[in-house]
Amino acid sequence: MAYKITDGCIACGVCISECPVGAISEGDIYVIDPDTCTDCGACESSCPSGAIIKG
Question: Which end of the chain has fewer beta carbons closer than 10 Å to its terminal beta carbon, N or C?
């Protein structure tokens, strides 16, 4: 099950640099492509606002 980014996202960009497969896209609230996500959890542990959850 891929991770997802909730409304708590502050668009800081930390998760993008942590994703080893480039599954995260920028925007007002960032988005994780579930087909690309490898479920590694690097984004969740790096998110300063706690906006990334297992989804």
Answer: N
